[in-house]
Backbone:
C-alpha cells in the first residue's frame, strides 16, 4: 500500500512544475507574437528588393555577379548552424543538431578545409560534446535578432568570399512555414543561386502578367544598372541571412510553446492519477484502522 | 501596384527590420551616392543607389528628416520606395557619437583595399551624421 503522504508530496511538486510550464508557455506565446510581427515587418523589405531585382532584370541586364556564380573548386567551406540558447522546446535543438552534424560530416568528407560556426548555447554544447571544434560561437541572438548584429556576420562572410577564403557557405536552421509547420532546412547561401528567394519565379510571373503595364516603364538608373546590381547582390544576401535568423527565432518560440503546452497537459493528467491513488490510499488506511478498532472491540468481548 | 496614380506622392521607407515611414508627401529629397535628388509628383521611373545623408519628406508646411545609411531608391507610379539598412529620425542622430566615430576612423590605420574602403565608408557615414546633428542644433524645431 502506497504511503499517502508520499503521494501528496509528489502531487504537490508536480503542481509546482505545472505552474512553471504554464508560465513558460505564456511567455513563449508572447515572445512568439513579437517575433512574428518582426518577421512580418521584414517581408516589406524583401518584397521590395525582389521587385527591384525584377525590374533590373527587365531592363535587359545580364545578372552576373561573383557572388552568384559557383566556384570551380570548393576549397574552403563553412557551416553555420542556428540553434536556440535555451532548452525546453521539444525537439527543436536536437533535430537541428542532427541535421547539422550530418551536413558537417558530408562537408568534411568533400571539402579539404571546413570551419564550423554555431549560434545558440544548445548547439555549441551539442557540437563540443561530440568533439567538434567550433570556429565561431554566437550566443547573443535571442528571440529578437537585430539586423545590425546579423550584418556584422554577413559582412565577414562576404569579405571572406570575395577574398577567396570561402567558397561555400551552408546554413542549417529551422524554417518557418506556418504556425503548425516548421522544418529543418539545410541551404547553401553562398554562392547565391538566385537573387532573393524565388526572385526568378516572381520576376517571371510578373513579366508574363504585367507585360502591358509595368514592363513599359523605362527606368532611369543612377548611376548605372551594373553598379546597382553590384550593391543589390550583397544586400540581398544579408537580408536572406537575416530572414533565416528571424525564422529560427520564430520557430524556436513556437516549438517552446507547443512543448510547454504538452508538458502542462501532461502534468494535469499526472495530478489526476496521483489524486486518485492518494485518495484510494487514504481510504485504505482508514478502512484498515477501522478494522483494527473493530477487531479490538471484538477481542475485548 | 501598377495602377496609374496621378494625384499624390507616396513615400515608403523600409529597413530589413521594419517599415519606418509610409506617408503621403508633396516632395521628397533623397541623398543619392553623388548628391541629393529631389522628387516631386509624376517623377519619371528611376532606380538609384543611395549614399549616406539626410532624407527629407515634405508635406505641406512640415518636413520630416531622417538619416539614411545607404541602400536603394525606386520611383515608379508616384511611389517612392526607399530601401535602406538604417533610418534614424534626425533628432535622434547623436553628434558626439558621430564625432567620436569620425575621429576613430581618421586615426585608424588601414592596409589593403578592403580596409581602405571600410575606412572611407565609416568616414562618410560619420560626416553625414555629424552634418545632420549640427543642422539640428542650428535650427531647433
Residues:
Amino acid at each position: 500500500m502506497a504511503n499517502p503522504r508520499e503521494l501528496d508530496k509528489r502531487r504537490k511538486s508536480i503542481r509546482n512544475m505545472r505552474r512553471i510550464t504554464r508560465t513558460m508557455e505564456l511567455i513563449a506565446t508572447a515572445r512568439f507574437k513579437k517575433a512574428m510581427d518582426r518577421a512580418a515587418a521584414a517581408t516589406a523589405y524583401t518584397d521590395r528588393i525582389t521587385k527591384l531585382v525584377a525590374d533590373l532584370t527587365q531592363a535587359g541586364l545580364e545578372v552576373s555577379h561573383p557572388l552568384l556564380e559557383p566556384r570551380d573548386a570548393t576549397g574552403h567551406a563553412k557551416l553555420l548552424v542556428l540553434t536556440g540558447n535555451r532548452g525546453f522546446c521539444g525537439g527543436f535543438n536536437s533535430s537541428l543538431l542532427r541535421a547539422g552534424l550530418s551536413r558537417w560530416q558530408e562537408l568534411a568528407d568533400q571539402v579539404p578545409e571546413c570551419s564550423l560556426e554555431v549560434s545558440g548555447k544548445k548547439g555549441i554544447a551539442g557540437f563540443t560534446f561530440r568533439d567538434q571544434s567550433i570556429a565561431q560561437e554566437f550566443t547573443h541572438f535571442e528571440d529578437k535578432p537585430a539586423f545590425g548584429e546579423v550584418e556584422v556576420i554577413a559582412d565577414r562572410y562576404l569579405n571572406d568570399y570575395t577574398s577567396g577564403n570561402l567558397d561555400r557557405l551552408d546554413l542549417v536552421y529551422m524554417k518557418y512555414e506556418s504556425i503548425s509547420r516548421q522544418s529543418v532546412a539545410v541551404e547553401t547561401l553562398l554562392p547565391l543561386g538566385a537573387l532573393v528567394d524565388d526572385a526568378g519565379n516572381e520576376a517571371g510571373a510578373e513579366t508574363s502578367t504585367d507585360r502591358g503595364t509595368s514592363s513599359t516603364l523605362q527606368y532611369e538608373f543612377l548611376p548605372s544598372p551594373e553598379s546597382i546590381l553590384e550593391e543589390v547582390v550583397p544586400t540581398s544576401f544579408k537580408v536572406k541571412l537575416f530572414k533565416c535568423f528571424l525564422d529560427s527565432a520564430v520557430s524556436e518560440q513556437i516549438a517552446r510553446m507547443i512543448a510547454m503546452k504538452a508538458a502542462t497537459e501532461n502534468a494535469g493528467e499526472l495530478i489526476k492519477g496521483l489524486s486518485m491513488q492518494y485518495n484510494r490510499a487514504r481510504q485504505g488506511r482508514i478502512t484498515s484502522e477501522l478494522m483494527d478498532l473493530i477487531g479490538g472491540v471484538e477481542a475485548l468481548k | 501596384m501598377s495602377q496609374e496614380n496621378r494625384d499624390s506622392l507616396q513615400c515608403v521607407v523600409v529597413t530589413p527590420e521594419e517599415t519606418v515611414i509610409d506617408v503621403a508627401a508633396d516632395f521628397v529629397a533623397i541623398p543619392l551616392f553623388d548628391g541629393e535628388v529631389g522628387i516631386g509628383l509624376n517623377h519619371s521611373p528611376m532606380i538609384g543607389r543611395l549614399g549616406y545623408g539626410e532624407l527629407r519628406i515634405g508635406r505641406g508646411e512640415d518636413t520630416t528628416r531622417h538619416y539614411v545609411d545607404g541602400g536603394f531608391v525606386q520611383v515608379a507610379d508616384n511611389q517612392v520606395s526607399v530601401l535602406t539598412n538604417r533610418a534614424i529620425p534626425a533628432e535622434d542622430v547623436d553628434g558626439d557619437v558621430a564625432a567620436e566615430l569620425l575621429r576613430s576612423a581618421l586615426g585608424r590605420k588601414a592596409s589593403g583595399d578592403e580596409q581602405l574602403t571600410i575606412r572611407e565608408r565609416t568616414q562618410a557615414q560619420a560626416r553625414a551624421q555629424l552634418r545632420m546633428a549640427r543642422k539640428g542644433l542650428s535650427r531647433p524645431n
Notes: Chain B has a mean pLDDT of 85. Chain B touches chain A through 28 residues (CB under 8 Å).
